[in-house]
Amino acid sequence: MEGEGDRAAAQYKFGPYMIEAGGVFHATALSYAMVNLRPVLPGHVLVCPKREVKRFADLSSDETCDIWLTAKEVGAQLEQYHKASSLTFTIQDGPESGQTVPHVHIHILPRKKGDFENNDEIYNAIDAKEKEMKEKLDLDIERKDRSMEEMAHEATEYRGLFS
Ligand code: AMW
Fold first, then answer.
1. Global pTM value
2. Dihedral, CA atoms, 62, 64, 28, 54, nearest 10 degrees?
3. Above pLDDT 70, what percent of the chain?
4. Rounded alpha-carbon distances, angstroms, from residue 144 to 34, 42, 109, 120, 131
5. Among 50, 43, 39, which residue's Cα sits nearest to residue 13?
């Protein structure tokens, strides 16, 4: 696991985007975990390989192990932090499955009873958020992404779970 100095100095890529270290709350040798620009539920975060890899099959064996071990730990901590009772782990692997950022990422969402009336609506919600984001970018109308300040505040809270 990396120390605070290493994390602050690190640069993270998420497909075409550079991710500010302030939004990253946990990192291992091969993976990192960040808060979400557009979460669909409290605690909806992403775990990614550090290497920019588009598809799940492109991960090495070490990266595959590392990303899932990281997701397991992040999920356990965030479920407890958010007083949830279940977790959704999901990967949209390739554009036809809904992947919009060409960099492997595991969505982790702490789940509570009744958070969605029909459980599987969560997958529609993830896609709807993405469509919303894409429309904002395409139409260049006012974006409603979360502020870096809000995201950094959330990441600071989570960082304390891994020290
Ligand atoms: W995919 O539809 O590719 O399975 O999910 C992309 C996810 O990445 C979405 O949850 C979206 O909110 C999130 N996202 C996109 N850009 C950023 C960013 N710059 N920082 C954090 N999360 C992001």
1. 0.90
2. 110
3. 84
4. 19, 17, 21, 25, 13
5. 50
pLDDT digits (tens, 9 = 90+) for 89-144: 999 999 999 999 999 999 999 999 999 999 889 998 998 867 666 665 554 445 46
What is 104-115 written as a DSSP string? --EEEEEE-TTS
Q: Which of 40, 45, 101, 109 to mutate to test the pocket of ligand 1 (most atoms within 8 A of CB)?
A: 101
Query: Catalytic residue numbers?
Result: 105
What is residue 59's three-state secondary structure? Answer: coil
For 118, the token pair is: 């029909």
Q: Is 109 exposed, middle or buried (0-12, 13-18, 19+ CB in 10 A)?
A: buried
Domains and CATH numbers, the chain: 4-162 (3.30.428.10)
